[in-house]
Amino acid sequence: MVISLYQRITTKFVVVGALTSLIYLPGFTDVWAENSPLEVIRSTTNQALEVLKGSAGREKAQRQQELEQMWKVVVPKFDTDEIARRSLATHWQELTEEQKKEFTRLFIELIKKNYSGTLARYTTDAQFFFDNERIEGEQAEVQTRIKSPSQDQPFSVVYRLHRKGDSWLIYDVVAENVSLVQNYRNQFSRIIAKSSVEGLFDTLKQKLEDLSAT
User: Fold this and answer.
1) Lower Cβ count inside 10 Å, N or C end of the chain?
2) 3-state secondary structure string, 91-110?
């Protein structure tokens, strides 16, 4: 399939692509302000873990319900319109308003379907480190690291956020210096170059059908 959506990237990106780390460090003190960018990442991680706690041993239908509940927690912390716009780059301007809405819907649904299975299997034995946050005006970065039992060294995950109204929303995730948005942009650009924007829509829809059938 033309769109792998990080399946060709390492397991590191699978964790990041899941949009949460699924890790909780008991006793981590509330040093940062309640609505700071770092607190957005930390609290969302903990909420997602709480929803999925113990889901690996449950029946498929119950696990699916828990995954859907987890996405309800996670997705609102992302600026989905901004991620979609950046992933299409200049091609975004070629879309009508209805097409922009449809592309964003397909894009987010594809992310959810791609990583739900991985989330259901992922262990909570890893360690997650919330290192620091850097705020410059309306932009922010939160530096984190993930250490899983299968890896000798932790790998870095940087969340990029911007302020939208009273909230800090994520618009990109960078794992080991590779941007999620840039990765999607490269894939989408290749598809459009070989076919068209309409061809990209067809590819996204086909991928969703394939994932739903599995």
Assistant:
1) C
2) HHHHCCHHHHHHHHHHHHHH
